[in-house]
Amino acid sequence: MEEIAQLVLRWYRAGARDLPWRRTAFHEQYGAWGVLVSEFMLQQTPVARVIPHLEGWLARWPTPTAMAAASAADVVQQWANLGYPRRALWLHRAAIEVTQRHGGVVPRDVDALLALSGIGDYTARAVAVFAYGDRHPVVDTNTRRVLARAVEGRAQPSPPSRRDLALMESLLPTTDADAAAFNAGAMELGATVCTARSPRCEICPLAGTCAWLAAGRPDTGDTRRRQAAYEGSDRQARGAVLRLLRAAAPDGVPLDAVLPDWPDSRQRDRAIDSLIADGLAEADGEGISLPR
Length: 292
Known about the structure:
There is one protein chain. The protein has helices at 2-15, 24-42, 47-60, 64-68, 72-79, 86-102, 110-114, 121-130, 141-150, 162-171, 176-192, 211-214, 234-248, 265-277; strands spanning 253-254, 282-283, 287-289. The model has no long low-confidence stretch (mean pLDDT 93). The protein is built from 14 helices and three strands. Strands 1-3-2 form a three-stranded antiparallel β-sheet. By secondary structure, it is an all-alpha fold. Strand 2 and strand 3 form a beta hairpin.
């Protein structure tokens, strides 16, 4: 098991991608706040889409205190087309909580991080590890896939569970620096080599120790929950309504002018109702706008 960590460490340190949140200058300028923002944005969103949004976000709100003073409408507007816009409101609330509870400094303690809005096991540990250098297991979808294949001999991971953290903990190197690099390396390996659909086993640093590869890459099934197609979905309708509201901001739009030609009027109405319920929009009986 120790060999897995050492192989990943050598591979990662030899050729890790140059990403903004991995640079020394980024940490010197934005600290843990920059890491926290990047982790919120990276949830279910590709790196290439996140980078330009992250730069714009931190240029506008370089600290939690700066963002806490912004309006919810400003935050939703700035989120633009990153998807899953509730993350913008959660990040805004987290900035307010950091400002009020921690004097504008993102906390280091995992439990304190977990108490912030929108932060779960992964994000809390990612901030503690990648911003502060502490030793914790950090497990995302990519890491879970690497562990499932290399250690357990399965083609795809099971649904997330606490045992993922325990397995990653058992593999962590002793020193804080090596543990942080291994966490990042396992994610990098899953994102670029040990991918879900087309793993490139021929260049994988774990090829010689991977249980799944040694077994002949068997199809062991996939119990992960599938995400519904975007085209024609309620998510698509929500996105269309939000785009309309962002274009009209700071003014609102008359309710009868919201997607009047949408092919499914009931779906459009569900989208409007769900955006209001999530705090992403406000309605006054005649019109709808971004939250004021």
